Each structure stands twice: as structure tokens, then as C-alpha cells.
TrEMBL record:
<keyword id="KW-1133">Transmembrane helix</keyword>
<feature type="transmembrane region" description="Helical">
    <location>
        <begin position="77"/>
        <end position="96"/>
    </location>
</feature>
<feature type="transmembrane region" description="Helical">
    <location>
        <begin position="206"/>
        <end position="222"/>
    </location>
</feature>
<keyword id="KW-0812">Transmembrane</keyword>
<feature type="transmembrane region" description="Helical">
    <location>
        <begin position="108"/>
        <end position="128"/>
    </location>
</feature>
<feature type="transmembrane region" description="Helical">
    <location>
        <begin position="171"/>
        <end position="191"/>
    </location>
</feature>
<feature type="transmembrane region" description="Helical">
    <location>
        <begin position="134"/>
        <end position="159"/>
    </location>
</feature>
<dbReference type="InterPro" id="IPR009339">
    <property type="entry name" value="DUF998"/>
</dbReference>
<protein>
    <submittedName>
        <fullName>DUF998 domain-containing protein</fullName>
    </submittedName>
</protein>
<dbReference type="Pfam" id="PF06197">
    <property type="entry name" value="DUF998"/>
</dbReference>
<keyword id="KW-0472">Membrane</keyword>
Length: 236
């Protein structure tokens, strides 16, 4: 089913994939709230790294010029959500590879998104206080891959409108906007630590667009599925 205001049916079961995409994307963000509330001391979403919520130990953490007291009793939940949600999003990205757009750009974008999901899962498997270097590689590499995936998907949706299978044309522009936002955050992540930038805000700028895209794509599928059902019932 195609057209300027419709979404082509994704692989069955359509509603299951859509709901899983929305839940997985939302969980990664929402789990930070109880984890931050459970943290011993004050956790700053602006100035502290997301990784602090997943650290397995407590004490002064020195990854900047100013040591920070880090203790996250909810770290098992945070890491489990990263592993589970990242794995789910990786599978969904593969499942959706032709639904996004049956072109080289579309499939490249889906594979990059899948790799981004796997790297998200890897950050939960290797907390920063277990292996900082590996965790940083997974985290920064994931941000790069995820946002390049969004960029490829946005190009695919806008460049081949006759093959556009993922919602109204505006969704392609929104996808490119999310990619640009995420890539800007990724670039800021690579700047020297001595600049004293708000690490937490920058990390979320780099990582949230990937999650937001899956939430939006899943919501659009559910909305379109409901509209098709109403049309079928009206025509019966």
C-alpha cells in the first residue's frame, strides 16, 4: 500500500514490530529516570555521562579533571535495558530493511541502524568501570553508526519518492533532521574534555535521535494500521 500519506505494510506481524520498536526506544530513555533517582548523591542529566548510571561500583570516578562521586544501585536495570532494547532494535532494523526503501541507500541505512542497536547492547555488556576504553569505543562508535544510519534512511526516503514506503514525505525530512542533530552531538563528543562542555547533554544529543526515530516509525505504523482497519470496516 503506497501513496503520499500512507505507509507500506511492514513484515508481519506488523503491529508487534511497531510496538516493540516504540517500547525499546522509550525504555532506554525512561530507565534513566528511576536510575538517577536511585543514585546515591545528586545525578545531573546535563553534566554527568549516561554511563555513570550503568557503573557497577561506587566511588570517585575520574574521567575528567574533576572527580565525581558515582554510585548507581540501579545499574543492573540500566545495563539490562541497554542490552535488551539494543538487541530488539537491531533485529527490527534488519526486519524493516525493505520496508524503509528497497534501494541501496535504504538497505544501507537499515544495516547501519542494526549495527547501532548492537553497539547499544554492547555498552550494557561492558560498563565503563569494567573496561573504560571498550565502553567508550562502543558508545562513541554507536553514536556515529546510528546517526549515519539515520542519514542514509533520510536520503533514501526523500530521493526515491516513487519507492517511498515509510509514511508521508515529511518523515524523510524529519529523519534527516534527527540525523543532523545526532551527528552534531557526536561531533561535540569528540572535542577535548578540557573544554568543560555539558557531557550529559551532549551524549543525549548524540544518542536520543536514534531512539526517537524508532519510536516515531513504530507510532506511524500503528496509526496507519488503525486507519486501514477503519477503512476496511467502513467498506464491509
Amino acid at each position: 500500500m503506497t501513496g503520499s500519506g500512507s505507509i507500506r505494510v511492514s513484515p508481519k506481524p506488523e503491529r508487534v514490530w511497531a510496538l516493540l520498536a516504540m517500547l525499546a526506544g522509550l525504555l532506554v530513555v525512561l530507565v534513566e529516570i528511576p536510575a538517577a533517582l536511585a543514585s546515591e548523591g545528586t545525578y545531573s542529566f546535563t553534566h554527568q555521562s549516561i554511563s555513570h548510571l550503568g557503573m557497577t561500583g561506587c566511588g570517585d570516578w575520574v574521567d575528567t579533571d574533576d572527580p565525581e562521586d558515582v554510585c548507581s544501585p540501579a545499574h543492573p536495570l540500566v545495563n539490562a535495558v541497554s542490552i535488551l532494547s539494543g538487541s530488539i532494535l537491531a533485529v527490527i532494523a534488519f526486519v524493516w530493511h525493505d520496508w524503509i526503501a528497497p534501494t541501496v541507500w535504504g538497505r544501507c541505512g537499515s544495516f547501519l541502524l542494526a549495527a547501532g542497536g548492537m553497539l547499544l547492547a554492547a555498552t550494557g555488556m561492558v560498563p565503563a568501570d569494567i573496561d573504560l576504553t571498550l565502553h567508550a569505543v562502543f558508545g562513541f562508535g554507536g553514536a556515529v553508526v546510528q546517526n549515519l544510519g539515520l542519514l542514509a534512511v533520510g536520503i533514501a526516503v526523500l530521493r526515491w519518492p516513487e519507492k517511498r514506503w515509510i509514511g508521508p514525505a515529511e518523515f524523510g525530512g524529519l529523519t534527516l533532521g534527527l540525523a543532523a542533530f545526532g551527528l552534531a552531538g557526536t561531533l561535540l563528543m569528540s572535542l577535548p574534555e578540557g573544554w568543560n562542555l555539558p557531557v550529559g547533554l551532549i551524549e543525549r544529543t548524540a544518542s536520543y535521535p536514534f531512539l526517537a526515530w524508532f519510536v516515531l516509525a513504530g507510532w506511524m505504523q500503528l496509526r496507519d494500521a488503525a486507519r486501514r482497519r477503519r477503512e476496511l470496516e467502513a467498506g464491509a
